[in-house]
Amino acid sequence: MPITVPKGLPAIEALQKENIFVMDKYRAEHQDIRPLRILILNLMPTKSDTETQLVRLLSNSPLQIHVELLHMASHASRHTPMEYILKFYKNFDAVKGQRYDGMIISGAPVEHLDFSNVDYWPELCRVMDWSRNHVYSVLHVCWGAQAGLFYHFGIPKYNLPEKISGIFRHKVLNPAHPLLRGFDDQFSAPHSRYTEVRASDIEKIPELEILARSREAGIHLVARNNGRQFFVTGHFEYERDTLAREYKRDIKKGMHIAPPRHYFPGDDPLKKPEVRWQSHAFLFYSNWLNYFVYQGTPYDLEELKGV
After folding, report:
1. Domain limits of the chain?
2. Superfamily the domain 35-298 falls into
3. CB of 131 closer than 8 Å to CB of 95
4. Which of these is catalytic: 177, 235, 246, 280?
5. Neighbours of 7 (CB within 10 A)
6. Is CB count within 10 Å lower at the N or C end of the chain?
7. DSSP per-residue codes, 185-232
């Protein structure tokens, strides 16, 4: 939340240089407050798990947030009953006339497919195009990040020789960026994917900046320079046992796959995983909401301009 101080206080300039939101007493008394409208496009098969993970991170803020859930009408979910989707989710036709302060596009287990072979790709492209003029700031996660980078900037994804799964250390490349305010120089985050995007492709796009990367897991955080689009290749939202459940699921399928790296104590899958990423996960989502949704979005969303 912003800090309110007397107008003209010398401390204001120093605090603003540290990306601390400071407003004077007059602005505080006259500002209009309304709930932030956040739209979550949930592409994961176990929708209730992903909803819980994302809403938990969004809730770590004193801001009032109104969340709406979106699904792809062109895809039939095999893991979530249609009754559940009809009760809690909207389709694109129901939201395309609306405007939102923020949006999250989740990951999806379709990395082995070319983008054009994903059954809901044409619909997702319409949503991503629509988001440029109807959402102030969009957060793309994992496959959603790869899809967004490809659709908006033509950046391809590449198959990996083996799955990247585990908890990896990342280096902050731009500590002054508001999205990383309060981050340590290095932080941990989960990854779970079979494909990657590469720095050499991203660095060709002047509007994009790599904010964090891992020696083992590669690119993690990418920002558009106007704060309107962010791309996260990992999974800040994962719970303690998410990678363990994925690993056991794959083993049950008969897949020859290594345990997630740096996850189980002593790399022993029989031991309880340790959580080493949650504090930065909450901080990341709080920073996004504060600096790139709450502070940037117009009070009247009809005034929202395109990316």
Report:
1. 35-298
2. Class I glutamine amidotransferase (GATase) domain (3.40.50.880)
3. no
4. 235
5. 10
6. N
7. SEEEEEEEEEEE--HHHHTT-TTEEEEEEETTTEEEEEEETTSSEEEE
The tens digit of pLDDT for each residue in 46-60 reads 888 898 899 899 888
SS3 state at 175: coil
Task: Judge whether 79 counts as a catalytic residue.
Answer: no
Active-site choice (142, 152, 177, 280) = 142
Count of CB atoms within 10 A of residue 107's CB? 25
Choosing from 177, 237, 246, 280, the catalytic residue is 237
Element (H, E) at 51: helix 47-58
Cα–Cα distance for residue pair 231/217, rounded to 1 Å: 15
Quote the CA–CA distance of 232 and 229 in Å, as a whole number. Answer: 10
d(CA 64, CA 58): 10
Contacts of 158 (CB under 8 A, 6+ apart): 195, 196, 197, 198
Round to whole Å and give the CA distance between 127 and 230: 16
Of 201, 238, 243, 193, give the one whose Cα is nearest residue 222.
201
Taking the C-alpha atoms of residue 52 and residue 193, their distance in angstroms, rounded to an integer, is 21
Q: Is 170 a catalytic residue?
A: no
Q: Is 152 helix (H, G, I), strand (E, B) or coil?
A: helix
CA 261 from centroid of its chain's CA atoms:
22
Query: For the segment 214-250, what is each residue's pLDDT rounded down to a tens digit?
Result: 999 999 999 999 999 999 999 999 999 999 999 999 9
Closest CA to 70 of 149, 135, 154: 135
